[in-house]
Every structure is written in structure tokens, then in C-alpha cells.
Amino acid sequence: xxxxxxxxxxxxxxxxxxxxxxxxxxxxxxxxxxxxxxxxxxxxxxxxxxxxxxxxxxxxxxxxxxxxxxxxxxxxxxxxxxxxxxxxxxxxxxxxxxxxxxxxxxxxxxxxxxxxxxxxxxxxxxxxxxxxxxxxxxxxxxxxxxxxxxxxxxxxxxxxxxxxxxxxxxxxxxxxxxxxxxxxxxxxxxxxxxxxxxxxxxxxxxxxxxxxxxxxxxxxxxxxxxxxxxxxxxxxxxxxxxxxxx
Length: 246
Hints:
This protein is of the alpha/beta class. The protein has eight helices and seven strands; from the N terminus they run E-H-E-H-E-H-E-H-E-H-H-E-H-H-E.
């Protein structure tokens, strides 16, 4: 896909989303950033887009609700008159021991990590069809892509991210006649969570064959690579420094 003068919607403008937004702007793409609570981070991402000479808008949305997904997509398309790229990045990542899990915990994670990807995609497809194609990129996780959980306490998250891969494959088949390509990215050790201490960060580095955290830019590179292709669809690409082979 030629990215100049296209419009991308990113459902999440924190950290990785901010860097992706900046890289898209560098390729002459306008960007809409959805957020729920992190307005400051979304504004920061929007400023990086504008600094590159492109247009950016931020839109508050509750993606745990189907109507919030539909409203976000409709607003994004209305702002710029089209929608070519959807990046489903919104995610809930919370540790909860199995014996303490509630149905609310389950729903809260799957509603955002899985259902929102479907709802936003379904809402975006009519806009992409009007321009004879588009790209949808979902976000899974390296553990789900590797086919087995690695950490206890993240049961709903793992199930949701495994579901994202199935959603990606099924959507790719459904939407291929419309020239809408659907892929997923499965990040590994990209950015250390703020709560991690030095020993924990080093342990992750030791467990990663490349021996380091990737940094947000590596996910952005993968996004651009998928957008540049007109023949890759239904794939889930790991960006994990080889973490899955160790």
C-alpha cells in the first residue's frame, strides 16, 4: 500500500502506539488516535504526527463496549473522509491468580483484547471497501503465537490473544475479495513495564536470544513492513528477539 495521504486509526496512543503514529506520519499518513483514559499520552502522540506535517486527531472511546468501537471508527472516518488502516492495539494486561478470577475479570479482558478488535474491524470494513482495499493489523502476543502460555496469572489475557490470531486468519479469508489485508503482530520483550526492577529486566534479557529489549521502533518497523506488502494476509508475525526459541 502506498501510505501517502492515507488515514490510519490506532486504538491506543501510549508508548508503542505513539512511535507507530510517528512512523506513519513520516510516511505521509494522517492519524486518528483512540484513547480511554490516557489523554495526555494520546495528545503526545498527536503532537508527534503534527510535527511531521500531518494531521492528527484524538478521540475518547470505551472499547469495552461495542457501541464505543463503532463510534470511534465512525468519528475517525468522518474526520478525514476515509479510513485505510486500522491498528487494533487496545489491550487489558492484568495479573490475577486463577483462584481469584471472576467472570468480570474474564469479560473485562476479552471485551477489550478480543471483541473490540472484531467490532472495530467490522465497523471499519465499509469505509475500506469504498476505496477498494485497506489493512487491518491486530495485536496478539508472543506467548500465544508460540502456542503455549509461559506465565501464570494471565489466563484471560492469553486466551484473548490466542483468539486474536484466530480472528486474524478468519477475517483475512472473509475480506480477501475486498482487497482488505488482515494480519497480526505478536510482540515479545519490547518495552519493560514501569513496575519491573533491574533484576527482572535483566532476567528477560538473559531469556531472549538477542540479549536485549527491542524497543518500540521494532514493532513500528513490523507494522510498516506489513503495510508495504500487498500479498501478506492472515499472518501473525512475532517481534520477540527470538524469545520463542529459547
